[in-house]
């Protein structure tokens, strides 16, 4: 039921004036940019946002979103679950210049023709929240994958030695 309650687009000015509360879920598979950072696009993100006009007449929304994403463990290179709990404080602006005037506590969200695409806004906030490097807990790595990952690391580095075949290829190239 909640799935249907989230709009695709919204007008932040209208929502703020009416003090709308948005609550619902979006599937992770809808976020094409985010998906490239993830091992799996299973699951969804739950969103809770309260819109209002603040004391300085800004259109803002505060709330949170939470989800579990699967990212690559940098030790064993297998997927590891990562819980994201993101506090949101968004300020809706007309352009970049307007964004620069926004107090630091707000993340600027630019309105295009007075509207915001909800999924794009949520995706950008999620991308910022995904850790750049992630690891399993100390004993959580897949032992087989771990062995493979570390033996690949210990392999002699061929890149530093000139490859005789490439030298030959270079000579051939110079002759012709
Ligand atoms: Zn691991």
Automatic annotation (TrEMBL):
InterPro entries referenced in this protein's UniProt entry, alphabetically: YceD, YceD_bac
Asked if the Swiss-Prot or TrEMBL record annotates the protein with the keyword Kinase, the reply is no
- Locate the coiled-coil region(s) and give their ranges: none
Record GO biological process: ribosome biogenesis
Q: Which Pfam families match?
A: YceD
The GO cellular component terms are:
cytosol
- Write out the entry's keywords from A to Z: Ribosome biogenesis
Q: Function, please?
A: Plays a role in synthesis, processing and/or stability of 23S rRNA.
Q: Which family does it belong to?
A: Belongs to the DUF177 domain family.
Provide the protein name: Large ribosomal RNA subunit accumulation protein YceD
Task: Give the lineage.
Answer: Bacteria, Pseudomonadati, Pseudomonadota, Gammaproteobacteria, Oceanospirillales
């Amino acid at each position: 039921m909640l799935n249907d309650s989230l709009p695709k687009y919204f007008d932040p000015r209208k929502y703020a004036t009416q003090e709308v509360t948005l609550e619902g879920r979006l599937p992770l598979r809808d976020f094409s940019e985010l998906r490239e950072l993830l091992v799996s696009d299973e699951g969804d993100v739950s969103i809770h946002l309260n819109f209002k006009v603040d004391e300085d007449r800004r259109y803002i929304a505060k709330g949170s979103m939470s989800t579990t994403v699967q990212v690559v463990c940098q030790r064993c290179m297998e997927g590891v679950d990562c819980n994201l709990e993101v506090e949101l404080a968004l300020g809706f602006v007309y352009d970049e210049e307007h964004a620069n005037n926004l107090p630091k506590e707000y993340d600027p969200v630019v309105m295009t023709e007075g509207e915001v695409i909800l999924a794009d806004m949520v995706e950008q906030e999620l991308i910022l929240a995904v850790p750049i490097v992630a690891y399993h807990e100390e004993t959580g790595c897949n032992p087989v994958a771990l062995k493979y990952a570390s033996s690949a690391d210990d392999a002699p580095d061929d890149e530093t030695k000139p490859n005789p075949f490439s030298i030959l290829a270079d000579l051939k190239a110079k002759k012709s």
